Amino acid sequence: MFIKEILLGFFIIFIVRLVWKWKRFFYLASKIPKSQFDFSWQGVKDAFNADNRMIFKMIYESFDGVNGLAKTWLGPMLFVIISSPEDVKIVMNSKECLDKPYFIRFPGPVLKGTLFGDIEFWHKHRKILDPYFGVQKLKRFIDLFDEKSKVLTKNVAKMLDQGDFDIFHYMTALTLETILNAMEFEIDIQNQESKVRDLTIEGLEIATKLVTQRIFRFYLHPEFIYRQTKMYVTETKAKAHSAFSYTDDVINNIRIKLKKNHDEVEEDKPTTFMRALVSSKFNLDESEIRDEVKTLLIAAQDTTAISMSATLLLLAMHKDKQAKVIDEMHRVIGNNPDIPFTDFDKLNELHYLEMVINEALRLMPVVPFVFRSVDSEITSHEGYIIPPNANLIIPIFKIQRNKTFWGEDANKFRPERFEKENIKKVNSYAFLPFTKGPRICLGWRYAMMLMKIQLCNFLMRYEVDTSLKYEELEFELNVTLNICQGFKISIKERKER
Ligand code: HEM
Question: 260 C-alpha vs ligand 1 centroid, how far in Å?
């Protein structure tokens, strides 16, 4: 009798707490201003049929007119758009919103990696990996980046004077080969027979397109339903051919290498991120190592390839800026395209090139939106309280083109806005290509170094042009941001050396 009463008491407390929690959730949600775009049931219905270009457009439009905080519903899910740099700062640095919504984990199976893993894995892995992505540790890859960039520059020579071609496929072969080599797995992707190479590259492209569509088709969220679909079969096949297919070989290779060398020092103080992952010092289990390797492969491949392709495309569209980049390169490193571009200090002196890359990352941020989920209530800078279980969207693409923060010419390609004097007038949380705070991109220094070296190699040898017009570019969302027309450039031998 007594036990029954206690159980009933607990049950009543549970129900009261549940009711209170959801009552408060809807109450706090009701106080947040509505976004102009109704993304509720009609939005969901439209999203069911949308292709990746439409998906980008729909999300993009849902941010129109939003300058502070605004809410929108995707079916039963509350999304709060965080669009002012002040609120971005709160969110990016808050312990209450380090985690990401469940649908971000759809690109699995990488559930125990830094990018998509739950917060427990994230803490553990980030702590292990962070020291290996600092400047001093990354400097060891400079020669590798230069050697691989020179292979691309040589391979692309067959396109000389051939008119427009999509540079992205060359870039993505380079970025995949480079990250695999950085993991000490010697493989030649750039010179592989094109069918094998294309399959690897397309694998990731197909998979990311499908993942994006799944996020917007609610009924496909439950795993047991998704697994019955054709999309799942295609995605699984695509992933099997993608960069993921190298995972086991990469891990076995490093283990054999360390065993052969009886490398106890490496066990105790691993020198690279790959050695750290397999070292017994950090005690990662087999599935954690596999997921982290996969995570690094996908995080490093498309992102850097798209950003380098976008930079070249924008320079092809803006010849005056291209001339300035070349002037600076000649002044700082000379005019011989065959020399190694491996002097770290000289690379650091290429200020204009860095401004160009930043401007490309501003206009075409490869990750156009990031998501967070809220663990406990947080307060915006205007005093709105965002309830736990809300999903936050940070529309990087929109923030980085907002005229309030970037001026009337926000949509124009003008690298000079990153000059010291100019950029200090802009709130630093309005420029977020790698985001900020504890979840800032792990590989941002790696990416910047590779991009600089690659662009030096490429631009020193080739003059780039394009028939595409900046104003006509259309975007699509494949997890990352892509250009529907492709990154079409043409190349000529550079004469003015
Ligand atoms: C231009 C190239 C790149 C861009 C624009 C980029 C951008 C981003 C962005 C926006 C995020 C999400 C951060 C957040 O949720 O707040 C991210 C996360 C991440 N990136 Fe990158 N990334 C690039 C290259 C790389 C490279 C080369 C690597 C690895 C070598 C890498 C590894 C990661 C990892 C592991 C995460 C997860 C970090 C975490 O959640 O703690 N990225 N990146």
Answer: 33
Give strand pairing partners of 483. 475
Do 46 and 7 belong to one domain?
Answer: no
Same domain for 1 and 106, yes or no, is no
Instruction: State in Å, rounded, how far the first CA of the chain is from the last one.
Output: 94
Condensed to tens digits (0 to 9), the pLDDT of residues 328-342 reads 999 999 988 899 999
Helices (H), 63-189: 85-92, 119-129, 135-138, 142-155, 168-182
Q: Supply φ then ψ for residue 463, to 5 degrees.
A: -95, 135
- Residues 349 and 438 grouped into a single domain: yes
Element of type H or E holding 82: strand 77-82
Q: Apex CA 422: angle with CA 421 and CA 424, to 5°?
A: 75
Q: How far are the Cα atoms of 185, 247, 278 from residue 287, in angstroms, in the given order? A: 19, 11, 11
Q: Return the CATH number at 295.
A: 1.10.630.10
Q: Is 441 annotated as a binding residue?
A: yes
**27 and 42 housed in the same domain:** no
Query: 298 CA to middle of ligand 1, Å?
Result: 10
Ligand 1, residues 118, 208, 303: which to mutate, most atoms within 8 A of Cβ?
303
Q: How many domains does the chain have?
A: 2
Measured distance CA(205)–CA(125) in Å, rounded: 26
What are the residues whose beta carbons fall under 8 Å from the beta carbon of 150, sequence distance 6 or more?
457
- Burial class for 221, CB neighbours closer than 10 Å (0-12, 13-18, 19+): middle
Nearby residues of 478 by Cβ (< 8 Å), 6 or more positions away: 52, 205, 208, 209, 212
Same domain for 14 and 145, yes or no, is no
Q: Are residues 279 and 411 in the same domain?
A: yes
Q: What is the CA radius of gyration of the chain?
A: 24
For residues 8 and 60, state if they share a domain. Answer: no
Q: What pLDDT, in 10s, does the model give residues 270-287? A: 889 999 999 888 889 999
Amino acid at 409: D
Q: Is the pLDDT of residue 122 over 70?
A: yes
pLDDT tens figures, 297-346:
989 999 999 999 999 999 999 999 999 999 999 999 998 889 999 999 99
Whether 275 and 451 have beta carbons less than 8 Å apart is answered as: no
Query: Torsions phi, psi of 369, nearest 5?
Result: -140, 140
Residue 230 CA from chain centroid, whole number: 27
Cα–Cα distance for residue pair 98/118, rounded to 1 Å: 10
- Compute the distance from residue 205 Cα to the ligand 1 centre, in Å: 17
Mean pLDDT of the chain: 88
Domain that holds residue 317: 37-493
Tokens of 371: 């998501």
Q: How far apart are CA 300 and CA 283, in angstroms?
A: 24
Q: Is the CB of 367 under 6 A from ligand 1?
A: yes
Same domain, 71 and 158: yes
